[in-house]
Amino acid sequence: MAARLSQHRRVFRRSRALVASGRHWRARLVFWLGAVAIGVVSTLFARLADRAGEVFTGITAGGGWHGWVPLVLTPGCFVICALLAHRYFPGSQGSGIPQVIAARHIHDDAERGGFLTMKIVIAKVVMTVVALGCGASIGREGPTVQVGAALMLKAAKLGRLVQARGLILAGSAAGIAGAFNTPLAGIVFAIEEMSRSYSARTNGVVLSTVIIAGIAAIALSGNYTYFGISQAVGHFPQDTVLVVVCGVVGGAFGAIFSAGVLAITRRIRRWRAGTAPWRVAMVALIAGLVVAVIGIAFGGMTFGSGYAQARQVVEGHALPAGYFVAKLAVTLASTLSGIPGGLFAPSLSVGAGLGSTMGLLLGANVGLAAVLGMAGYFAGVVQAPMTAFVIIVEMTGNQDNLVPVMAASMIGYGVSRLLAPEPLYHALSRNWLADAIRKRRAAAAEGAEPAPAP
Questions:
Q1: Are 86 and 134 within 8 A, CB to CB?
Q2: What is the mean pLDDT of residues 156-182?
Q3: Which of 82, 129, 245, 386 has the most CB atoms in a 10 Å sphere around its CB?
Q4: Which residues of 131-162 are buried (b: 16+ CB within 10 A; e: fewer)?
Q5: What's the rounded Cα separation, in Å, for the pair 370 and 246?
Q6: Reported confidence tier of residue 20, pLDDT bands at 50, 70, 90
Q7: Long-range contacts formed by 221-225: CB under 8 A, 24+ apart
Q8: Which has the higher per-residue pLDDT, 186 or 289?
Q9: Which of 173, 161, 159, 156 is nearest to 209 (CA)?
Q10: Which of 102-111, 348-357, 363-372 bottoms out in mean pLDDT, i.e. has the lowest?
Q11: Distance from C-alpha of 114 to C-alpha of 91, rounded to nearest angstrom
C-alpha cells in the first residue's frame, strides 16, 4: 500500500512539473495554432475551389463557341500543371493522401519533409484551384489532407514536438473534417485508412486536433451539411434489393476504377522512366483531351468536382443513365494526368449517378438510391467501409439511413476486395516510398567519396 502511494506521489509531482513547464505550454500553444491554421486554410481552400468552378462554368456556358473552349483550355491547363508539379513541386501530384501515408512510414525528417513542406502546401492549393478552374474532375478533399498534415508537421517543428507520426495523422484527420464539415468521419478516416490501427494516445491527439480545426472552420463558414438534408429513408425488408444492388454494382465499379488507376499508373511510370518532360506533357495532354471531349458530349455535366450533380440527385432529381460511367472516365483521366487533385468529391458524384441509374431501373426512390450508390462505390474505391458510411451519413444529415448505408458500404467493400485486393491509396503510397528511397540512394551515391587509388 505504501509503495503504491509513493508511486502515485511521484506521478503527481512529475505531472505538476510538466504542467508548470514553459516548454510544455509553448509546445501545446504551437500545436493548437497548427490545428486552427488547418481549419482556416481548409475553409479558404474550399471557397477558392468553389469560385474556380464558378469561373469555369461562366466561361463555357455562354453558348456558341464558348462550349468548345474546354478543347483548348482543359488540355492546356493539364499540361502546365503537370509540368510545374513534375519540375518544381514533386510530391504535389494527385490526391496527396498516398504521400501522407508514405510520409508516416519514413523516419528521416528530411525525406518525410519532401512530401509535407510549405512549398508543397502552396503549390497544392494553387494548382488544384487552377485545375478546377479548367474543368478537371478532381476534388479538394485529398489535397486538404496533405495540406493539413504538412501544417501540423510544421507546427510540430516550431513547437519542438516529437510525435511526428501522430501529428501527421492528426493533421490528415483535421483536413478531412474541415473539407466536408464531418468531424467524426475525419477521426474514422485517420484510424481506418491512414494508420490502419488504434492507439489511445495518438487518437487523443487526433481528436483534439479535429475539434480545434472544426471550431475554426465553423467560425468562418458556419455549421452546414455538405449535401443538404436527405429526406429519403431506407427500410428493411422492402429496400433490401436496392441496398444489395447498389452495394454490389457500386463495389464492382469502385474496384474497376481502383484497379484501373493502379495498372495504368504503373505503365505510365515505366514509360516515363528517365523523367523526360515531353512524356509528362503528353500524358497530361491526352488526359485533358479525354476530359474535354466527354465533358462537351455531356453538356458540361462531367466537368469539375461533381458536387452540384451529386446534390441534385440526393435531393431526388435523377441524372442521365450514362452519367456515372462518363464521370468515372473523366475522373480516371484526371487522376492519371499528373496534376494535383483528389478523388473524394468526384467519387461521391460517380456513386450518386450510379445510384440514380439503379433507382430508375428498379423503380425505387432516386434520392435514397443515390445515397446508397455513393456508399457502395466510395467504399469500393477507397476500401474503407467505416469511413464511407460515416462520411455519407454526416454529409446527408440523415441518421435514419445509418443501417442501409452501412450495409451498402460493407457489401461494396467486400465486392471490391474480391475483385481488387490491393487498396488504392496504400498501393500508390508505395510508389512514393520507392521514389524517396531512389532519391536517397542517388544522393548517397553523389556524395560518396571516390575510392583511393591502389
A1: no
A2: 75
A3: 82
A4: bbbbbbbbbbbbbbbbbbbbbbbbbbeebebe
A5: 9
A6: very low
A7: 221/43, 221/46, 221/47, 221/181, 223/181, 224/181, 225/181, 225/394, 225/395, 225/396, 225/397
A8: 289
A9: 173
A10: 102-111
A11: 7
Tell me the three-class secondary structure of the chain, residue by residue.
CHHHHHHHHHHHHHHHHHHHCHHHHHHHHHHHHHHHHHHHHHHHHHHHHHHHHHHHHHHHCCCHHHHHCHHHHHHHHHHHHHHHHHHCCCCCCECCHHHHHHHHCCCCHHHHHCCCCHHHHHHHHHHHHHHHCCCCCCECHHHHHHHHHHHHHHHHHHHCCCCHHHHHHHHHHHHHHHHHCCHHHHHHHHHHHHHCCCCHHHHHHHHHHHHHHHHHHHHHHCCCCCCCCCCCCCCCCCCHHHHHHHHHHHHHHHHHHHHHHHHHHHHHHHHCCCCCHHHHHHHHHHHHHHHHHHHHHCCCCCCCCCHHHHHHHHCCCCCCCCHHHHHHHHHHHHHHCCCECECHHHHHHHHHHHHHHHHHHHCCCHHHHHHHHHHHHHHHHHCCHHHHHHHHHHHHCCHHHHHHHHHHHHHHHHHHHHHCCCCHHHHHHHHHHHHHHHHHHHHHHHHCCCCCCC
Residue 421 CB coordination number (10 Å): 11
Residues 280 and 81 sit within 8 Å (Cβ to Cβ): no
Which of 69-78, 172-181, 201-210, 386-395 is the most confident on average?
69-78
Q: Which residues contact 58 (CB under 8 A, 6 or more apart)?
A: none
pLDDT of 115 strictly over 60: yes
In the numeric block, the cell 428498379 is attached to 362
In order of 64, 82, 133, the CA distances from 67 in angstroms are 6, 24, 15
Structural domains for the chain: 28-221 (1.10.3080.10), 240-435 (1.10.3080.10)
The reported pLDDT for the residue numbered 425 is 92
Considering the entire predicted model, what is its pTM? 0.88
d(Cα 353, Cα 311) in Å, to the nearest integer? 10
Question: How many residues can be counted in the chain?
Answer: 454
Q: Report pLDDT for 436.
A: 80
Distance CA 310, CA 109 (A): 40
Q: pLDDT tens digits for 220-263?
A: 777 666 676 777 777 778 889 999 999 999 999 999 999 999 99
pLDDT classification of 338: cutoffs 50, 70, 90: very high
